[in-house]
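To: structure desk
From: M.T.
Subject: fold request, one chain
Message: Could you run this one when you get a chance? Sequence is below, nothing fancy, just the single chain.
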Amino acid sequence: QVQLAESGGGWVQTGGSLRLSCAPVGRTFGTMAWFRQAPGNEREFVAAIRWNDGNTVLAKSVKGRFTISRDRAKNAVFLQMNNLNPEDTAIYSCAATAKSWIQSAMSASQNYDYWGRGAQVTVSS
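Reply: Done. Structure tokens follow.
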């Protein structure tokens, strides 16, 4: 069974930063992404990265504040979150698929086959 080991969630004040990491156990994937879900809201796309060339897609709500990156040596994907605000409070989940999606397909949750358990991010005002 594929495992996506997430880490890095926590609590931070408005304007603070956190970094999430996701490390697939035992394999690499074509495309990896982060989604989030706040209480009472639907799951929302945050960012995605294509493993072979590092091509990225970011949601408009996080552009300029969040960065997604990958580390080939560590076989891990990172979500650097800066200038956080209370609207960013949510459970952040790592997602992965063996397919190397084109940019227009990278934000669709149905295009991902594997999901992590999620990491809580809480931003206080």
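Reply (cont.): The chain has no helices and eleven strands. Let me know if you need anything else for the meeting.
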